[in-house]
């Protein structure tokens, strides 16, 4: 049981203070380690592996400030909460301590109730840090694993192309799975764009076969972004004009992403029109788009549909405070320059009736289910750490992790999810 106890390191050059604090904390079930010298404590710090440090400021040889400054350069100690023990009105020492990274203060003479409350709170904070640290290690392992899976999936995708010429569904699912492995939020975006695109085509005089082709193109329209760092993609997409404030090399990668599907599907003749649509989905009808700067009727109708749905979904995420009506008014300013007027009017009618992804409901953690899509981040109340970002669809693994975390720590509850998910 000793190994499971939380370790409190107390450093004070006065024996009476050490024994007093020890007597207050031992009944709480902590393992209390006492040091009269900060210099010796810093030498032993890694073997002590404390959960909380109580540190006196005024000590000979090495004072509390010097100790605090040194441990913040030790990677394993950066997240260990440090409580500085100060005189009641020693404001200057408190300011210096905060600048050096102290987490809390105790005033002399030490009050037993206050000491126990602060230590208990900080032990919980450290427990959160440890949980997140271990969780991040698992995530890093998963990222490495998924990176290998992406490479292997892409290799298989190209290798089996010839064998799957007549199996459209299998290739689509493989491509979508590839995106999900790389970035679930990107896959979620593509899925929503496909829903919007299908709703538009149902209102248009389009053959059934073309409707299916447009839906497939919508599902895969951003597959070319696989491999681009997620944070860089988001940085580019935040700019209204993708040519501004972006590294030139990254910009070229982004601008060429509509061309990428050819590499995977070029030998599959049945995909020719899907590729045409994907290539055109960033073209504007006034010729200001990319990658080729096509004009009006040069752009595939399916691409015009996806372009509008794509832009609406991205703006809906970026401007969450805007109502659907306000967002449509903003997009209308780009009609006849970026977007086709007829398609916009159809889309506006659909959204004004009911946007399938704008309705948000609150669901308590115990009622979360697989398939629900998170509308706002799931956040730890104690640390403010985002456990799961928005636009992520819950699967069994994510659901289990959230419920396991909530059994140990407090999560902001209820969770906001999309009504139609």
Automatic annotation (TrEMBL):
Entry-annotated residues carrying 4-aspartylphosphate: 56
Domain HD-GYP: 164-366
Pfam family, one: HD_5
Response regulatory domain span: 7-123
Matches recorded under CDD domains: HDc
Alphabetical GO biological process terms: phosphorelay signal transduction system
UniProt xrefs under SUPFAM superfamilies: CheY-like, HD-domain/PDEase-like
Keywords: Phosphoprotein
HD domain residues: 186-315
Database matches in PANTHER family: CYCLIC DI-GMP PHOSPHODIESTERASE TM_0186-RELATED (PTHR45228)
Function: May play the central regulatory role in sporulation. It may be an element of the effector pathway responsible for the activation of sporulation genes in response to nutritional stress. Spo0A may act in concert with spo0H (a sigma factor) to control the expression of some genes that are critical to the sporulation process.
Entry protein name: Stage 0 sporulation protein A homolog
Organism: Tepidibacter formicigenes DSM 15518
């Amino acid at each position: 049981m000793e190994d499971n106890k939380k370790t409190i390191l107390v450093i004070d050059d006065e024996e009476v203070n050490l024994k007093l604090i020890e007597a207050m904390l031992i009944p709480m079930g902590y393992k209390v380690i006492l040091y009269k010298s900060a210099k010796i404590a810093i030498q032993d710090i890694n073997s002590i592996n404390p959960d909380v440090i109580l540190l006196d400021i005024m000590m000979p040889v090495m004072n509390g400030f010097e100790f605090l400054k040194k441990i913040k350069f030790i990677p394993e100690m950066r997240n260990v909460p440090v409580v500085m023990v100060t005189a009641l009105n020693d404001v200057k020492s408190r300011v210096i301590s905060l600048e050096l990274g102290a987490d809390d203060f105790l005033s002399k003479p030490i009050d037993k109730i206050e000491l126990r409350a602060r230590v208990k709170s900080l032990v919980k904070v450290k427990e959160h840090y440890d949980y997140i640290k271990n969780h991040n290690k698992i995530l890093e392992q998963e990222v490495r694993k998924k990176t290998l899976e992406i490479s292997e999936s892409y290799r298989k995708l190209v290798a089996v192309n010839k064998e799957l010429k007549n199996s459209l569904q299998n290739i689509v699912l493989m491509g979508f799975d590839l995106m999900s492995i790389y970035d679930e939020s990107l896959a979620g975006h593509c899925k929503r764009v496909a829903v919007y695109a299908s709703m538009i085509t149902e209102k248009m005089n389009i053959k059934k076969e073309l409707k299916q082709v447009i839906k497939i193109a919508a599902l895969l329209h951003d597959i070319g972004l696989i491999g681009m760092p997620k944070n860089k993609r988001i940085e580019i997409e935040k700019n209204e004009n993708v040519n501004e404030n972006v590294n030139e090399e990254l910009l070229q990668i982004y601008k060429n992403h509509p061309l990428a599907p050819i590499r995977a599907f070029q030998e599959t003749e049945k995909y020719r029109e899907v590729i045409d649509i994907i290539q055109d989905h960033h073209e504007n009808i006034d010729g200001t788009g990319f990658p080729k700067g096509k004009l009006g009727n040069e752009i595939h109708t399916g691409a015009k549909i996806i372009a509008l749905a794509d832009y609406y979904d991205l703006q809906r995420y970026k401007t969450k405070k805007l109502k659907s009506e306000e967002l449509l008014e903003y997009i209308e300013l780009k009609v006849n320059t970026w977007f086709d007027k007829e398609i916009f009017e159809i889309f506006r009618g659909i959204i004004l009736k009911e946007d399938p992804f704008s309705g948000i409901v609150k669901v308590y953690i115990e009622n979360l289910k697989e398939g629900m899509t998170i509308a706002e981040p799931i956040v730890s109340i104690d640390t403010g750490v985002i456990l799961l970002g928005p636009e992520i669809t819950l699967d069994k693994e994510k659901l289990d992790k959230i419920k396991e975390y909530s059994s140990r720590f407090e999560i902001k509850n209820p969770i906001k999810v999309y009504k139609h998910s």
